[in-house]
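For practice. Any example?
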Amino acid sequence: MSTEKPFMFDVEERSLRTSLRSCRGQELAVDQQELALGPYERKKRLRKKKRSREDKNLTDDERVTLQAELEDLFQPREDPSDLPKDLQLVVEKQVHERPGILKENIKILKELIKQEENLNARTDDLFLAAFLRGRKHDVEKAFRCVKNFYEFGNKYPDMYSLIYPSENPEVFDQQHFGSLPGTDRKGRKICAIIPHRLRPSEIPLIQSFRMGRTVLEIMLMDLRLQVMGTCVIFDMGGLSLVQQARLITPTVCWHLAMCVQDKIPMRLKAVHIVNQPSYFNAIHAIFKRLLKKKLRKRIFLHGTDYKSLHEHIAPEELPEEWGGTRKPFSGTLTKTLLHLNEDKFREWTDTKTTPFSEPVMEWKLF
């Protein structure tokens, strides 16, 4: 049996060993905490650690380009009655808005909201103008829509609470949804949805519903969208069998139908479905039963016939994947818009009544 004494480390090395053991203990504790989380939360934490490396310093030229693109995408004004000249010419025809009626109806709508118990809604003029214009200045219908908007969100908070790019960049980085700069041939705003880019096995679908709610809340501040409405391009191409099983369900269809018809003030003027598979007709037949007759007439099935789509939206306003001349579709611009103005969302969430008291959208660039 050996009588050799254990090797004695000098003080510095012993201290280093102690520190290493402490660090390993901390790492183990962190690992155990992360193991207690679900896979989505673990991936979310990893992406948060990478987020600071994703931001980059922009050159002056890049800043100018980004600001121009953002202004083409989104043009809010502090005063909802301060319409651009082209909208002044059509606002009465589009939403029954005669001179002076907007201010009067906003006042009535605020009073109705104030009198409604348990309705904690935003009451800034720009927000309420969206509901009035969305219901063509029928104040009772606008008030009902405000209530539906908040009641639906309170009933399904996991699906309709706001979500921020700084906290959940992975949801936005799927690049499946966003607004497009420009308008269609009738002057309406455009947004696009590409379901096959979703990753439902990694990112819960409810997160994408939250993203949709968040994008909607800021885009409703755009006066052109309020007056002229919007159209949607829905690209059904490339869906895998797994995606089909998770995305094309009665629950998803019901939520979409409820949102676009009764729960939001957005004037949905057209839905352009492209690259739909052969079985889509059967799905469409079921889904359209949930829609009102007026909205059924606004659904256009184009398949791969982009010339048919171009009758509604000029190629100059479309990305190249739909036969357009713009660069490929990306939701990055929409993500940037939200990211730069998260402070406004947090104010709305905290108070629900915070008006735009500062110049609307002084673009904050990196």
